[in-house]
Amino acid sequence: MISLNHMNEYEKRLEDARRARMQDVRPRTDGAVPPRAPQKNRIEEALGKPLASFTAEAVPVMPPIAPKTAAPVSAVQPLAVQKEGNAYGRFLKKFFLALLALALIAAVGLGGYVVFKMHAAPKTQTPQATIDAVGKLISLPAGETPTVATVSDLAPLKDQPFFKDAQIGDKVLVFKESEKAILYRPSTNKIVTVAPLTGGAEVSSGVAK
């Protein structure tokens, strides 16, 4: 059975332990409570002096970073729209180049056709121009104007010796008073044949006046 004295002693020790805990001092077994050195902070131990000896420095305040503003939706084109626009632009470029090439080819072809027709088409001459051209190649009867006709069909003339070398477009100069006929070819500017009018040179249906 525990006596009252033991209870009082137990409560006294319990009170001493509570006070020692509050003062961060552990009680000794002999009842004496030695003073306990205060613990140092780890930062103080590393620096070698207490933190209270340091003065706080002002830390520069960073200006607030403005949030990035998103570009307006109208200024941003989706990638699909950009690709579609580029493809359409390339198509238009190729189309106009092809159109220009076709126009150039057509212009060259038309010009060549016109030049060919101009050189290929027989040059029409007036009767006087024909007489002047023949007069430069052969002496013509003086004082007489011949009748000028054009060979338009060779079939009726095949039996006439005067027209054996004739071609379509040849000119016939008939001098009735001098009884002389001249077959002239304007395409080559040459005299084909000259014959007396009574020697078979007759103006027939194959010669147009």
Characteristic key phrases:
209 residues; alpha+beta; five-stranded antiparallel sheet; 4 helices; 36% helix; rod-shaped
Amount of beta strand: 5-15%
Radius of gyration: 67 Å
Number of helices: 4
Number of E-state strands: 5
Helical residues, percent: 25-40%
Name the strands of the widest sheet in spatial order: 4-3-2-1-5
Give the overall form: rod-shaped
- Unreliable runs: none
Distance between the termini: 176 Å
Helix/strand structural class? alpha+beta
Indicate the mean pLDDT.
75
Order of helices and strands: HHHHEEEEE
Main sheet: strands, sense, barrel: 5 strands, antiparallel
Task: Describe, in plain words, how this protein is organized in 3D.
The protein is an alpha+beta fold and 209 residues long. Among the domains are: 85-121; 127-208, no CATH class. The chain is 36% helix and 12% strand. It has four helices and five strands, in the order ααααβββββ. The chain has a five-stranded antiparallel sheet with strand order 4-3-2-1-5, with helices on one face. A hairpin with a 4-residue loop joins β2 (171-175) and β3 (180-185). The chain is rod-shaped. The N and C termini lie far apart (176 Å). The model has no long low-confidence stretch (mean pLDDT 75).
